[in-house]
Design goal:
By secondary structure, this protein is α+β, with helices and mostly antiparallel strands. The protein is 21% helix and 19% strand. Among the domains are: 91 residues; 83 residues, no CATH class. The protein has ten helices and 22 strands. The strands form seven sheets. A six-stranded mixed beta sheet has the order 2-3-1-13-14-15, with helices on both faces. A five-stranded antiparallel beta sheet has the order 4-12-6-7-9, with no helix packed on it. Strands 5-11-10 form a three-stranded antiparallel beta sheet, with no helix packed on it. It starts with 28 loop residues before the first strand and ends in a 19-residue tail after the last strand.
């Protein structure tokens, strides 16, 4: 007989008894877009939060940082992936007035500016003891800077750090009231550059659920992007929705633009693709001026705030953020000129699906007005799914992605565990039942938070584990209902109802 052990008291601390899971990334959006990235690396994701100023300090200026700042302003955390891009060349400058000084624009613009108006407010010639002064509007006169002195060398670079543009005046007279007008198109973002950014996102450990790509894309480019996003699932990164911006009218009539969009995306079939159609003025929380943005920006902000089961078009949640509202004034545009009505340049229009229907039927996400209510609403958060798909609304994809995420976490911890088998080498019913109950518990937050009407897990009993056969698992969830039409009858009666 061996000697007795040294007397001691042993301890162990088993883990995961409480069923804790990582925090849900269901409201986190990964934004891919163009930006100046002063403190970031191209195609490398980074989680951003806190305040718009924090976004600017890390991500700089441009469409990508501006959307991130809008999301952060609403209280969201966002994952930003800066991608490569080609700056647009400013259009020719249109000078109206009697002055002889010629203005040109140098530098590489960071963003799109629908109409830049430089107005002379004090006459003079660059180099005068009392220099000429101008104001600058980046949004067609809806807001403008304070009065700016033109330096002696004629090079006005006060906006160079935030817009990438310097305004150069020749040494000749400026006359009060003269205007210099030009526009800047959207930076060009190639689908291949988006794919590179997506590969960086796929390889990262940053949590996210939805992906938003800044920049207008046609169907061919969208399909290239979709092909890469489809590879995320193999990495157990379950995407709850891919937001893509469609192209703008670019001078075409509304009818022509709608017909071209419908023709281009005809036959598209994806259970995760949400294509936004239409643009609207959105006040930048970075610059303070109105920027011409896809209506998808409003949808993205709403998606970052509401439950994964919430329809982005729920009228109870009120209209999308007012075009004229900004919580913090940006560093550039300091004086709002118009409060309420928005002045759009010629050729710009806001597509209102209620007044000009057609794109909703083609499964685009649009905005619309409601009679008697202010503002615009998401018509429907449509997905461009096939005709036989269950996934016609974004919330269905978001819920399935969360179900997949939680189910994956639960069953990862069941891998390679020893279990008892029956005489035929099959899973015992009590083991399968334990898995079913365990996964239902892991998914419990979806029912307690009323994201689904019901759900349940079924584990197959017929897999021969000794022969390394896969054990089939099916998780079924019942969605909530989303009433879209009420048929109301108004009638007079001789007696009280």
């Amino acid at each position: 007989m061996s000697a007795p052990p040294i007397p001691r008291v042993g301890f162990r601390f088993p883990n995961r008894n409480l069923g804790q899971t990582p925090l849900s990334p269901g409201n986190i959006i990964a934004v891919i877009g163009a930006g100046t990235i002063p403190d970031m690396v191209l195609n490398t994701p980074r989680s951003l939060g806190g305040s718009p100023d924090n976004v600017v300090n890390q991500a700089g200026y441009g469409p990508g940082p501006d959307l991130c700042a809008n999301l952060v302003q609403g209280g969201a955390t966002v994952v930003y992936v800066p991608c490569d891009y080609t700056p647009a060349t400013p259009s020719a400058v249109d000078h109206e007035g009697t002055g002889t000084s010629v203005m040109s624009v140098t530098g590489d613009p960071f963003d799109q500016y629908m109409q830049v108006i430089v107005t002379c407010v004090r006459a003079g010639t660059p180099g005068d003891a009392i220099p000429p002064r101008v104001t600058i509007s980046l949004d067609n006169g809806n807001s403008e800077t304070g009065q700016l002195n033109i330096p002696a060398d004629g090079s006005l670079d006060v906006l160079a750090d935030t817009t990438g543009m310097t305004f150069e005046f020749t040494a000749a007279a400026l006359v009060a009231g003269d205007t210099y007008t030009f526009s800047v198109a959207y930076p060009t973002v190639a689908a291949a550059d988006v794919v590179t950014a997506l590969q960086g996102l796929k390889a990262s450990t940053e949590p996210f659920s939805m992906i938003y790509v800044c920049g207008p894309f046609n169907k061919a480019d969208t399909d290239t992007i979709l092909t890469e996003v489809a590879t995320f699932e193999a990495r157990k990164k379950f995407v709850g929705g891919l937001f893509i911006e469609s192209v703008d009218a670019d001078g075409d009539s509304e009818a022509t633009w709608m017909a071209d969009l419908a023709e281009d995306f005809e036959g598209e079939a994806s259970d995760l693709l949400c294509v936004s159609a239409g643009y609207m003025p959105v006040r930048s929380v970075v610059l303070g001026c109105l920027m011409w943005r896809s209506i998808g920006w409003g949808a993205a902000v709403r998606a970052s705030l509401v439950a994964i089961s919430r329809d982005l078009g729920c009228r109870e949640d009120e209209a999308l953020t007012s075009f004229g509202t900004v919580a913090t004034q940006g560093p550039i545009i300091s004086t709002p000129v118009i409060d309420g009505a928005i002045a759009l340049p010629d050729g710009f229009f806001i597509h209102n699906e209620a007044l000009v229907p057609g794109l909703n039927a083609n499964q685009f996400m649009t905005i619309m007005s409601e009679e008697g209510l202010p503002g615009f609403y998401i018509t429907n958060p449509n997905l461009m799914s096939g005709p036989m798909s269950d996934y016609n609304l974004l919330q269905f994809r978001r819920i399935s992605a969360e179900v997949a995420r939680l189910t994956n976490i639960y069953f990862v911890f069941q891998l390679s565990k020893d279990i008892l088998l029956n005489s035929e080498g099959l899973v015992l019913d009590k083991e399968a039942t334990k898995w079913e109950q365990g996964n239902n518990t892991a998914l419990g937050t979806l029912t307690t938070r009323q994201n689904v009407s019901s759900l349940g897990t079924v584990v197959g009993r017929d897999a021969n584990i000794i022969n390394n056969e896969a054990i089939p698992v099916t998780v079924r969830w019942q969605p909530k209902g989303y009433p879209k039409v009420f048929d109301v009858t108004i009638a007079m009666t001789r007696t009280a109802a």
